[in-house]
Amino acid sequence: xxxxxxxxxxxxxxxxxxxxxVAALVIYVDxxxxxxxxxxxxxxxxxxxxxxxxxxxxxxxxxSVILGSxxxxxxxxxxxxxxxxxxxxxxxxxxxxxxxxxxxMDIIFDSGHxxxxxxxxxxxxxxxGGVDETKYPLPEYLYDDNYFNDxxxxxxxxxxxxxxxxxxxxxxxxxxxxxxxxxxxDEYYNIQWVMHNYEQPPVVEEVxxxxxxxxxxxxxxxxxxxxxxxxxxxxxxxxxxxxxxxLYWNDVMRENHLEATMAEYYYIADRMFDxxxxxxxxxxxxxxxxxxxxxxxxxxxYHRDINRYMTECFADGTCEVAGEEEMKAAxxxxxxxxxxxxxEELFSVEY
Length: 351
Description:
15 helices, elongated, single chain, Rossmann fold, alpha/beta
């Protein structure tokens, strides 16, 4: 029995030591940046927006932030330093809903950083959903301040194998200036690829009422955006509407919600005009961009050159809409582009 007791004790001690070493390794390297900034020489792999964004928001050095969906992944943060003198970090979520933006802004504005600017891309179609809806289930233990539930991080096999040991075996440190960039390389941005993969939605006969989306949009603004603008008057919010391709508007027309979508754009912009610390940029009416499908890899995702152009606009004020009348004019231009575009010719060609 004494021998058995010794074996149990020694085994338990060995297991405890092993677990303690694993936890110490995770805390030291901290691949999700929950406890400290990155170690200078470790080749961190950054590819998990849900798990790594909160830690980066807490511990990276920055004075401005890029937020949004996959419409923002091709921004290069070096451009913001070059053109605007901002030390920028990208904390976007592919397919992001308004609540996803709110969740990360909670961390950003509680982190102690002086945030001079937030660049937020708004996808209007996501603002009609539930105010508490997120694109993916959150790993809550990485978003709260409860250290007791960090056991899910400290003893996580995936963290150890894929974010500590794998980078050590094959060091290729992620460039944070281009983190999360889309997998599409230049050869995918062409009309043949886009049209080959595009499927028109079925035609909807019933017209969506012009005000159909406004209630949902208002709830999302009140819960997931306006409070952050109001509580941070020293932060300039660059609110921008991305330039989806003309095929997006083909979907809108076939689904018969053009007026409702236009009303949604107008309502969001009009609410933003109430704030002195908000600038609004409208890119959908950039005809040379949206009608040239060689700028796209699908019906909405554009080449990084378009992201560069948008950054230049943030810096020099091009494409900014400064009030109700300018927004109305921008929407009228967008409608005109749709009316003049030859969809029949586009779909008559075999790709």
